[in-house]
Amino acid sequence: MTLDDWFDSEAKCLLHGAVDGVGPCARCGSFACPRCVDGHGRCEPCQRREGLDACERTARGVAWKLCVAPTAALLGASVAAKTNPTAALALLPWLVPLALGFVVWRRPNPALAWLGTLTCCGLLAVRVHAAWGGAGWALADVWLLAMPSVAALGGCVELSRQHRALRWVLAA
Fold first, then answer.
1. Burial (Cβ within 10 Å: 0-12, 13-18, ≥19) of residue 123
2. Over 80: is that where the pLDDT of 62 sits?
3. CB neighbours (10 Å) of residue 59?
4. Which is higher by pLDDT, 102 or 139?
5. Do 146 and 94 share a domain, yes or no?
6. How many domains does the chain have?
7. Which of 23, 85, 87, 154 has its CA 20 to 30 A from that of 44?
8. Comparing C-alpha atoms, which of 116, 112, 109 is closest to residue 94?
9. Does residue 1 sit within a domain?
10. Predicted confidence band at 99 (pLDDT cuts at 50, 70, 90)?
């Protein structure tokens, strides 16, 4: 191949080297064939990457919401443990949603996000039942702890939708 032949040749698809490219990808600039490019001018690898990025952002949004109530409950338990050591043992179940929040942060997994969110909501429901006969401020405290957990439910729905759409990418 001469230098003139090289400059006169058509650009080839990144994934299908024998197929002529229709144009550069809007995101990375590599050439893509009509089979690989989507309606927004992105090649197939960039479509996958953008889907994974959105899935990771959603998972991190769920993860920090999962960690708020358990962290506050465990901090309260550490203060209460000075006067009543058995009270701290009652709050050990809060480690479950906290640990699941850290796992979801590292790896977007809708099943673990749902498990952590529902565990957190269940623990808050137990706390409401325990505080129902007590002071009104205890119920207000539980309400404030419940807000991030309830907000995480919407993130779990979105993460499940994104994960289902990207199942073929995450399996690879």
1. buried
2. yes
3. 25
4. 102
5. yes
6. 2
7. 154
8. 116
9. no
10. very high
- Alpha carbon dihedral 36, 38, 42, 45, in 10-degree steps, equals -50
Q: Name the residue range of residue 117's domain.
A: 49-170
Query: pTM for the complete prediction?
Result: 0.66
CA distances in angstroms from 107 to 60, 101, 104, 161, 162, listed in the order given: 9, 10, 5, 16, 14
What is the distance between the terminal CA atoms of the chain, rounded to a whole angstrom?
Answer: 37
Same domain, 64 and 147: yes
145 by DSSP, 3-state: which?
helix
DSSP string of 42-56, one letter each residue: --HHHHHHHHHHHHH
Run of H or E residues at 117: helix 110-131
Domain presence at residue 23: yes
Do 81 and 131 have their domain in common? yes
Instruction: Give the model confidence (pLDDT) of 141-168 as tens digits.
Output: 777 778 888 888 888 899 888 888 777 5
What percent of the residues of the chain are helix, what percent strand, and what percent coil, each to the nearest 5?
Answer: 70, 5, 25
Q: Which two tokens stand for residue 61?
A: 């949004």
Residue 36 carries which DSSP code?
T
Tokens of 152: 């995480």
